[in-house]
Amino acid sequence: MTDTTDARNESRRDEAGTARRDFLKGVAAAAAVGATGLGSAQELTEMTTLDVVDNPIGNYPYRDWEDLYREEWDWDNKARSTHSVNCTGSCSWQVYTRNGQVWREEQAGDYPRFDESLPDPNPRGCQKGACFTDYVNADQRVTHPLRRTGERGEGKWERISWDEALTEIAEEVIDTVEEEEYDAISGFTPIPAMSPVSFAGGSRLVNLLGGISHSFYDWYSDLPPGQPITWGTQTDNAESADWYNADYIIAWGSNINVTRIPDAKYFLEAGYNGAKRVGIFTDYSQTAIHCDEWIGPDPGSDTALALGMARTIVDEGLYDEAHLKEQTDMPLLVREDTGKFLRASEVSGLSVDADRPEKVFVMQDADGTLRTAPGSLGERDGQHDHSVSIELDFDPDLAAERTVGTADGGDVETRTVWLNLRDELSAYTPDAVNEITGVGRETHQKIAREFADVDRAKIIHGKGVNDWYHNDLGNRAIQLLVTLTGNLGRQGTGLDHYVGQEKMWTFNGWKQLSFPTGSVRGVPTTLWTYYHSGIMENTDPDTASKIRESIDKGWMPLYPSERDDGGRPDPRVMFVWRGNYFNQAKGNIAVEEELWPKLDLVVDINFRMDSTALNSDIVLPTASHYEKHDLSVTDMHTYVHPFTPAVEPLGESKTDWQIFRELAAKIQELAEERGTEPVDDRKFDRQIDLQSVHDDYTRDWLDDEPGALAEDKAAAEFILDNSEESNPEGADEQLTFDDIDEQPRRILEAGDHWSSDIEEGEAYTPWKDYVQDKNPWPTFTGRQQYYIDHDWFLELDEQLPTHKEAPVLQEKSEYPLGYNTPHSRWSIHSTWRDNSKMLRLQRGEPTVYLNPDDAEERGIEDGDTVRVYNDLDSVEVQAKIYPSGEPGTVRHFFGWERFQYPDRNNFNSLVPMYMKPTQLVQYPEDTGEHLHFFPNYWGPTGVNSDVRIEVEKVEDGAASLDAGVLGASTTGAEPSDSGSRSRGTLGRISDLLGGDD
Amino acid sequence: MSKTTDGTLNQTDDGDVPLAEGVDHQVAMVMDLNKCIGCQTCTIACKTNWTESGGREYMYWNNVETKPGAGYPHDWEEMGGGWDEEGQSRTPGELPDEEDYGRPWDFNHEAIMYEGSDEPLRPMENADWGPNWDEDEGAGEYPNSYYFYLPRICNHCTHPSCVEACPRSAIYKREEDGIVLVDQDRCRGYRYCVEGCPYKKVFYNAQTKTSEKCIFCYPRIEGEGPEGEVRPPSCAEDCPPQLRHVGFLDDEDGPIHKLVNEYEVALRLHPEYRTEPNVYYIPPYAPPQTSESGETVNADRIPLNYLEELFGPEVESALNTITREREKAERGEESELMEILSTVNNDDQYRLEVFDDDD
Amino acid sequence: MTTDDAGAERESGIRARGLVLAAVLALAIVGATAAFPAIVDARAAYEIPVEQQPSADGLAEPTGDAWESVETVTVPMSSSGAAVPGGSDTAVDAVSIEAARTDQKLYVRLSWSDPTANASTDSLRAFGDAAAIQLPVSSEAQPPIAMGSTDKPVNVWYWNAADGAESLLAGGPGTTTQIPESTVETTATHTGDRWTVVFTRSLPSDRANVTDVDPTRDMNVAFAVWEGSNDERSGQKAASEWYYFSPGSSSGATPYESVLWAVAGIAIVVTTLVTIEGIRRTRSE
């Protein structure tokens, strides 16, 4: 790009004044001329002769005009890019430009095939990616730095220079660090996989400043807590191509056809490959319509359904006994008295070859002899230790039940986890399951039998079952089905949970780039948000005390940290980029009323004016996805491909990497002027030195090369160079940025944060390290662990998966309707919610899906404006009748921006702050190898599905504004006191292209 | 078999595929409704390619509608057009208005984001109907409601009533591929074609005062454009589940011929309109019904008579054939039909250059 | 422009005129022996006198004073019967025609009742009010009334309330072809419940396929009107039969001699026309 920068600036200068729409009207004008009949010059000179048509079928004489459309199929250049909007799609696109402007995009469609027996991976994409071009020159586009002149959220701005903006931010940052409140500086940005360079830009600066990095996977309740609990792993999924390898697929609360559009093909075509596809959804969903059987449990009852299916599999002996004995904790003995696992150290006369016998578990073999369980934590060097094997040289007794003589001379009664589990499952009789879930007595058993019967069965697990307070129990119950049937660690099997992206290929390079100091102040965002929004005063005493205990014991970190005087400062500075924190936050009202006022400075870095930008103090214009270099990966596939600039950043916008680099430069410059001294970090053994922060930002810390990372592309290359996936140790092959720009490439190897290797000609499937290579699972017991003997779990009687009713947030009598905020096909989170092209294919405003009976009862008709409310708030939206929703359930698809609601609240305003204490633990309690806080690995999930609401018709509701009102609001709005004139984006663009300065 | 006007049989006695007289080859498309997820990527791909501006804003040459449903334009199936029983004289049709299509709303982004308006983001004109207004609604009662998605483009019919409707003969079928086009120089905007098309796939452009329609992306299939590469229509090429086959109806070695004439699983939409469409559909199947007690019961979820209304009397045997072939695949047996419908081997998904050598 | 006509050829114009002319002849002879004043005002049916005006002042204006002295001919209109949907459903049943000329230009004023002015085609279902004047390309020719034929083409001067004036060449239904750089101009006004439109064109034309207007000779002419609010377009139009422009006397009092010349003139015309009619019938048999 650099070599053509000048030329592009020229063309930009010519074109930027014209939004793409207008630019294309030029084309249409040409079309109009063509259509007047005066198009051809000869007609004007030669004599007019009759144009006669004898037969328009196959013999039409006047076809020169056809060039009209041929001339519209034309472009100057193409560039490969993708979309970085917290989407797991990671689809490679070609961006077409005309006259220096982006014209349109089309899927690149050139992913190489690695397995000819699977469907073609091409093309990946969806309707949203197909119109991202709209954002490049959209009305929403932020084109120059803005400073708030009205209240936060008012939308009144003054345009300021980059230098003013960076100086104002830098001064506040320096003050904060000098006052040793660096841990009151927050950087929120989600999902590195979608654009790791942009992610790293802010994270790197925040890390250098000693600020805090926010988790996102747990905060958005994308993290399935059952996976760290049972499998000791945050999540590990097969790539979607592997669906096609399955004989039987259950889509369980995963609305693939809506939320995994680029991957849906593998699910759809599996049906042509002989697979049966069962959909388990609380509505006849957009995925259910293409399933072979649809099961519709009542909302929140999935756990009981899964345990009922498990009961059938166990009672009918359909389970994989060998798998259970070797790979799970089922043979482990549990003390009847304490409910704790029997530890080797407790057993008299049991020889233990381990450093920590108290963390070694016990089985009984077929001869009735007690044996230590290989791979127990006590004989491992930490959570991940592949020097130890779980392979058995004896045959453990699943059904052991015995008295054990203890070292202290006493006796304890013990039973295996398996027997405990059978007791638990015995409660889920067909009648009970039918009672709780509404699913047929026969049907759920039939599905269980079919699932157990096939060779390769898979569950695709989604957000629909993960947003409940008891999501950990639900996860564990559903996971149990693949474990019982041994459907793990092979192609076509497993439980694939595709919600958000917990980690990424090219992991190490990204980590080194984002956190150069290696000392990361990570925080569980659910805890951070709710704590600073006042949850301690707004939750039940038990939860409050558990939160307190977790913080005090250091199980969960909270920043700013408690000071020696016992005080704890408020958060002070917040940077938000690549995300819409303020809009997407649950407990939305508390966040607005409690947390937001505590922040002295909110800086949003954005290409569009989203709700967080609108509620910020300073908005910095960032490059769009078609204006920068970056990388893209996803756990939906095993390819890596780039962003490359199709055009230069519009107006004054800069890439995220450049914005934070220039901020670092400004901080360093002012720190030098102020002679700011280095500050000792109160937690880590390092100094925060603002006088070198820019040098440190651009320095390659691994090669200790100054200034090496000044440019975005260099940062992207750094990631590829330093990641096992793209540059495997000892291999002669390596993926460079230019390679992947040429064509997407499959990653070469999987680093050790993945549980299987990348195999030639095979779709990636997790868990092979454990199931096939017999390495210990990264759990306390070294096995898939369904029994958790943590004190809190025992206290709550959740040592095993069990069905519990949802907590009562609102009384059903008062709020009879269940409230669900599923993901929509029309947005990726909040992005595209405000896109005109997408809105025209909806209803132009937020809608709520109502069952026809529920609507009729309330005198509501399709298209009516209704008030959706509970004890927290009331939101005004349009009613849409949805016959496929169960009576008593309401769907308000999420992601709508606050400014799309008359009261400037949103779908999250009806969701309270609440979290489940079992997700605040460390396990084992003392050392925490199995469960310990790590951002996006383990932490409290921000759930929301337990909410109840009522709906009523708004008599005087304005479904859509009449032109008069809008006329007033568009033209009549009093110009903001800053004097920035009320003119369109084009006005602003032309300004910044030399119009006014 | 012999050619009939109701579109149910598509092969003459000697096995030739009947084309419109004077047309050498006929482009055709088969859409597999069991792979359509209603994502509208085709709709947007078409729009960004052709109908962004210049009076085309309201047009969706390709749209996807939820069935059962009013569709686009509103209640188009009630608007007449097409041919009578004999297929000789045309039946009268209506001219839809802006509200039937839905207007291309503009929004007040500016006011809210940069001018301090406290209004919500809304269309700046009435928004009472749109091209996808009744998305996902369908029919029936929970738990046995039903719906599916129907993508629609111009059918480039063999017996096009729009061509017949034009008193100026400004609409024609191309000799080389049977694509139906409105001559933008000759058209005078009478809109008889809009009335005459029973699928309502010709659109009046009030800015150019001419009618326009899906052009089957002829510049793409001709290999026009800077790279000179032959590419299928964008609605097909950009479809994430790849549910469309594109080729020539008379290419007897191609998958379309197999689906239409051999397996007879690809059917015309509303064959009773008798325009003999060249877009064909694999009819949809759905999970069986659920009983009061939550049991899966062996009963069709989508009423057969509804599918017959859309795809004619052949739909039942088409569905039976698909079921039979799926069962073969389930037993691990070879099924050519299943292979054609999947993209594992998709070399023939788009066969557009088979006739390039002939004149 | 919306003057195509898919309608079946109609036996109009000449045949009707053939009979009528017999009457005219009789009338002329009787008239010549009768009281002169009667003859002075006499005007044949289907005749539209083209009055010579000393100056162009006001003629180009729909409401120009100059038109007050010009004789108005009321032309009955009926559906063209074209085979387009609604082809026989038309709204306008009469148009008032006035024609005048200077040495340079021909001016024709059409006026008809239309309560609704439909001057826009910006909405999908809107059609504009329109009017047209049809002339044979060759003044000797007798084209079929419906857009002429390939061997007897016509020119159509077309005005549409939405798009203004166009000059067209046509040789049968569906063949209208725009004549570029047309010198046809129109001015129009909608007052009360009437449209008034003036068509203006310079008399001579040396361009092929463009009617050369010779003001000294009769020339066939037909008229058509479209009511937009009735969705009229194309062949759905109210059309007249063939009329003819006749060289009218210059305005002012008619001297006695001219009356005799008029009688003689009529006789000549009659002879000519009967001859033409004879030839035409022979051809058509």
How does this structure look, described?
The complex is a heterotrimer of chains A (997), B (359) and C (285). Chain A is of the alpha/beta class. In chain A, helix 11 packs parallel to helix 16 (471-484) and helix 14 crosses helix 15 (441-453). The two termini of chain A are 26 Å apart. Residues 1-10 of chain B have low confidence and may be disordered. The two termini of chain B are 29 Å apart. Chain B is α+β, with helices and mostly antiparallel strands and 359 residues long. By secondary structure, chain C is of the alpha+beta class. Chain C has three helices and 14 strands. In chain C, strands 1, 2, 3, 4, 5, 6, 7, 8, 9, 10, 11, 12, 13 and 14 form a 14-stranded mixed β-sheet that branches. Chain C is globular. Mean pLDDT of chain C is 80; it is low at 1-24, 26-40 and 250-260. At the A-C interface, loops of A face strand 9 of C.
Helix content of chain B: 10-25%
Strand line-up of the largest beta sheet of chain A: 5-4-21-20-19-6-7-18
- In percent, how helical is the residue content of chain A? 25-40%
Rg over CA atoms of chain A: 30 Å
Overall mean confidence score, pLDDT of chain B: 94
Q: Give the number of helices of chain A.
A: 32
Record the strand order, biggest sheet of chain B.
8-1-10-9
Q: Provide the succession of SSEs of chain B.
A: EHEHHEHEEHEEHHEHEEEEHHH
Give the structural class of chain B.
alpha+beta
* Terminal-residue CA separation of chain B: 29 Å
Count the strands of chain B? 12
**Largest interface, Cβ cutoff 8 Å:** A-B, 142 and 125 residues
Low-confidence stretches of chain A: 1-46, 959-997
Low-confidence stretches of chain B: 1-10
Helical element count of chain B? Answer: 11
Strand residue percentage of chain B: 5-15%
Oligomer: heterotrimer
